Amino acid sequence: MEQEKLIKILDSFKNKKVMVLGDMIADEYIFGKTTRVSREAPVLILKYDSKEIIMGGAANSVHNIHALGGRVFPVGVIGQDSTGRHMLKIMREMKIPTARLITQMDRPTITKTRIMAGGYHTARQQVIRIDKEADLPISQECEGRIIRILTAHIPDMDALLVSDYNGGLITERMRDILLGLVHKYHKPLVVDSRFHIMKYEGATLVTPNETEAAPAVGMKLDGAKGIKEIGQRLLEKIQGKGVLITQGRNGMTLFEGKNKITHIDIVGSDEAVDVTGAGDTVASCATLALAANASLQEAACLANYAAGVVVMKRGTAVVSVNEIKGLMEKTQK
Known about the structure:
Blueprint: H1 3-11, E1 17-22, E2 24-37, E3 44-57, H2 58-67, E4 71-79, H3 82-93, E5 101-104, E6 110-118, E7 125-132, H4 140-153, E8 159-164, H5 172-184, E9 189-193, E10 205-206, H6 210-216, H7 223-238, E11 242-246, E12 252-256, E13 260-264, H8 278-291, H9 296-310, H10 321-332
Parallel strand pairs: 1-4, 1-8, 2-6, 4-5, 8-9, 9-10, 10-11
Antiparallel strand pairs: 2-3, 6-7, 11-12, 12-13
């Protein structure tokens, strides 16, 4: 694809208005240094070093859109707890508006805690992950407030991104109203949904990875031929404009109408440092591209470059327009 055109699209990301509706997740990293094996059990003892909380899930998409120059408007629910307050503090320091983030007292902020261990001269490795999930669905009051937010603000957006991590935020009623509004106002809608992708009928673009796409249509992965059948069946059932299936080191494949299939090879190194949150980056970049009137192929190409940058960073990370341009320049040589 012509890089000059892609660079023009990247430059037009600035100030595009994107609403992100989804499960705001805190990614907590606890770092420790290995000292010895415990006498109580065959486990390592870690000497506590530090802790870091960063934005994950839909909040990572919020962070990515902000880092790429877009004006992002997060919509979701967090808990009335220290983690939730810390997430709000992070966003406010970035000048990201938080007025559409609702606090529900009886639900914790969804948190993924990763214990990272390493010696004094070795790289830190994840040894275990502990998830704190919201077992209760959102309250009817929260649901009503979010529906009113969608109704009032979708007409002013350039595009919307749904980041559905199955955290109990997006109800059937909310989804139906969202889909009705984006169709009424002709807004691009990108959906990144782990378990409910089939429920977003008519979305502009869905961005599952291969392990999410296959079970959604009741199939098993079977190489490149299998991916083609999975993607075509998914596109047919969702009746949207496009399906973008990410495949790790095998790149990604875009499915459009009339059996149009475009495979995009990875750019950069095929030895990823960390794929945590890469799907959020792909969905975020594609959403901004569609907000800037890019074609689906152009959006997929830019999302592929963004993924090529972010997988070379440790932990939940974001990418900037300049980093994408830098990777483009390297691959052109």
